[in-house]
Amino acid sequence: MNNRFLDACWGKPVDCTPVWLMRQAGRYLPEYMAVRSKCTFLELCKTPDLAAEVTIQPVDILGVDAAILFSDILTPVEPMGLKLDFVPGPVFENPVRSMADVQRLRIPEPEKDLPYVLEAIKILRRELSGKVPLIGFGGAPFTLACYMVEGKGSKDWANIKRMMYYAPEIYSALMDKVTMMDMEYLNAQIKAGAQAIQIFDTWGGILSPTDYEKYVLPYTTRLINGLNRMETPVIHFVKGSGTMLQTVQKAGGDVMGLDWHINLGTARDLLGPGMAVQGNLDPSVLYAPSEVIEQEVTRILDENAGRPGHIFNLGHGILPTIPPENARFMVECVHRISQR
Amino acid sequence: MNNRFLDACWGKPVDCTPVWLMRQAGRYLPEYMAVRSKCTFLELCKTPDLAAEVTIQPVDILGVDAAILFSDILTPVEPMGLKLDFVPGPVFENPVRSMADVQRLRIPEPEKDLPYVLEAIKILRRELSGKVPLIGFGGAPFTLACYMVEGKGSKDWANIKRMMYYAPEIYSALMDKVTMMDMEYLNAQIKAGAQAIQIFDTWGGILSPTDYEKYVLPYTTRLINGLNRMETPVIHFVKGSGTMLQTVQKAGGDVMGLDWHINLGTARDLLGPGMAVQGNLDPSVLYAPSEVIEQEVTRILDENAGRPGHIFNLGHGILPTIPPENARFMVECVHRISQR
User: Fold this and answer.
1) pLDDT tens, B85-108?
2) How many whole angstroms separate alpha carbon B58 and alpha carbon B19?
3) What region does B130 belong to: left with phi over 0, alpha with psi -120 to 50, or beta?
4) CB of A26 less than 8 A from some CB of B
5) CA of A117 to nearest chain B CA: how many angstroms apart?
6) How many Å apart are CA A60 and CA B151, to the nearest integer?
7) Nearest alpha carbon to residue B301 among B270, B330, B323
8) Of the residues A4, A7, A32, A36, which is catalytic?
9) Helix, strand or coil for residue A129?
10) A73 and A143 in contact (C-beta within 8 Å)?
11) Are B173 and B106 in contact (CB under 8 A)?
């Protein structure tokens, strides 16, 4: 069993820096596209054998040190009562706009409402045994609420911001419910065998540091506090959080995800030695020739300067048009160079 | 003459904090829409009387302390030889992809190729005399190059990043030419009467701090150094630059534009007393009820803590769906609260 990833989450010594890629089971892989061509995106999320198959692909193809469950952050929102579709971006037919809408939302029972997720985790633990650890994941309450209120992706997220400012009681009732759902969902993933949990807060960075602290931090903190994580490290990734890292750190968790907008060395100085970090290569660098990729991997490892608790990753999901051989080369660079 | 804005640019004492709004001549104003309904966006940019009319509207309607020339950052790129259209986002029919494409670009002569911009400035100086100063502006070389290479807006700007990494000689030849164009264009604006210059680097923040320093900073530095700015302060605004402010500061300029992702107090501490700042209200706060707007204005003024050299502004352009009365209320708050 390759334990580099879990050891690094806990700040323990490792033989070389562990590495995985956000969205590593994805469209840039022809092997993924072959599976995906047979069903819709949601069907793939809901079919444990297929979800497990695409989860494992990058472990074999790229040589990464962790697998992350193939799913979507919005999967658990559907059984709350919102009709989900991908066209290809996510769309909810009935977004949440009123207190009545919030009250109609139910808290799913993961074993009953999301059995395919837990089943995929069980299959994966069997099939990955002796290889690499399995990461489970969920969206942070705020990011889920963004989609639930807006009904789809947005440039300025005007609807949820109007709700925050004009109807804070609806906003907090919604966030309470989403946080509760998230807690039960992620604890069920841990119970089914997830060996680490990553919380994705894709949209936390759209707010000012002040609004983040007021409208987001209390819920993420409650979520992380509510996870059964004696042996399960929690990675907290808030995209665009480089200007408010110490505020985000208050939410707790063991590993801070970093996008590519902050120097990793600066981030580590701000966070202190007690927190591991994950990141932070610009995903676009994988478009570059191999000498540039190697140079950037070296630079990030140099910025970490041998401090324990570094998991190498991209600063955001891998782009669909990246050549897989470039991703594989990056993984190889991380292992080779960090051994020096 | 209301000199608050220029005084603050130079770090001089002011009677109250000056304020204007990025994109203040824009779609949120019915008065703007009335003019705009009679012509296309590009026609509006190219008709000095109309451009001057919409430039002045927010001065009268909102009571702001500066006017900014109505134009588009891509206006001067068209006479370089790229065919520009708005559909409604900007599109170039013939993007720049090869060294031959770069060599074909010409450096416009502002007086001959962009007379309507200079004419609008002259009209505005006459009509604004005794009211408020006039800000001229241009896109930073990198942001212009992003559109020129991509041909339109993009999520990941893959084409220009590939050019940076695979064909640095084409990239630098393009950036040299755009920087030269920018310098002549902005100097012509100063000569025609612009009393301050804002450089918009909307996309500088898509790069890591390391890549920004390597691929963007040298060109913006050269541009700012090349401006005839004895009496004309330069505002440098790089969206998403909160994690690399001290790097961006090396480009020079008198005022640093701040988006809303960094606390203004933190930014001032990083930049030191020698540089003024402009910002940094989240544009979405103008969706909020007046008590929230007042509270946020107060918070930002408190963060500045009376330091000289603060121009209040949004952290990005005003959104098209903002009620004009909210913008007016914000301006009134800034003046009233900063007098205390």
Assistant:
1) 998 899 999 999 999 999 999 999
2) 12
3) left
4) no
5) 30
6) 38
7) B330
8) A36
9) coil
10) yes
11) no
Query: Is the separation of the CB atoms in A318 and A327 below 8 Å?
Result: yes
Task: State ipTM.
Answer: 0.93
Q: Quick one: closest CA in B to A206, which residue?
A: B261
Q: How far apart are the first and last CA of chain A?
A: 22
Shortest Cα–Cα distance, A340 to chain B (Å): 23
CATH of domain A4-338: 3.20.20.210
From B4, B28, B32, B36, active-site residue: B36
Q: Which residues of B touch A263 (CB under 8 A)?
A: 208-210, 243-244
Q: Contact A158/B284, CB-based, under 8 Å? A: yes
Distance of CA A83 to the CA centre of its chain: 23
Domain boundaries, chain A: 4-338
- Closest-CA residue of chain A to B267: A243
- B27 as an active site residue: the answer is yes
Quick one: B340 exposed, middle or buried, by C-beta within 10 A (0-12, 13-18, 19+)?
Answer: exposed
Q: In this model, does residue A205 exceed pLDDT 90?
A: yes
Measured distance CA(A313)–CA(A289) in Å, rounded = 18
- Using DSSP, state whether A234 is helix, strand or coil: strand
pTM for the complete prediction?
Answer: 0.95
Of B225, B189, B312, nearest to B260 by C-alpha is: B312
B169 exposure class (CB count in 10 Å sphere: 0-12, 13-18, 19+): exposed
Contact between B204 and B216 (Cβ < 8 Å):
yes
Kindly report, residue by residue over A226-270, the tens digit of the pLDDT: 999 889 999 999 999 999 999 999 999 999 999 999 999 999 999
In this structure, the number of other CB atoms found within 10 A of the CB of residue A13 comes to 8
Structure tokens at A34: 């072959």
Residue B52 CA to residue B47 CA, distance in Å, equals 9
Closest CA relative to residue B198, chosen from B175, B229, B172, B222: B229
Secondary element (H or E) of residue A211: helix A209-215
